[in-house]
Amino acid sequence: GLSVNQAARGKSFDESEPYGDTNKNSNRANSVAKIKVVVRKRPLNKKEMAKKEEDIITIEPNSNALTVQETKLKVDLTEYVEKHEFVFDAVLGERVSNDEVYAE
Fold first, then answer.
1. What's the burial of 91, exposed, middle or buried (CB within 10 Å: 0-12/13-18/19+)?
2. What's the start-to-end Cα distance of the chain, in Å?
3. CA 13 to mean position of chain CA atoms
4. How far is CA 100 from the centre of its chain?
5. Annotated region Disordered: where (predicted)?
């Protein structure tokens, strides 16, 4: 079957299919304020740059998803990259100002 990420990819939480019978709560749900989750990628800090750490976050242009590329070790100590995708209502780059974040 589909994973949760595959089922909701490209949609905000509010656009996902409802779970269970929500008809009895629909009036209440419509009157409750919606929560919007917006994330902003931060640049590497001086300490991270001094340690030559890598930027492991990728944001696709015009997308509401980001990918974390986590380097891991196999049992035989060979490295591999495990990718994790996260979907939000909005994903902003590291050059975006605070005003632009709150405008979202």
1. buried
2. 34
3. 12
4. 18
5. 1-31
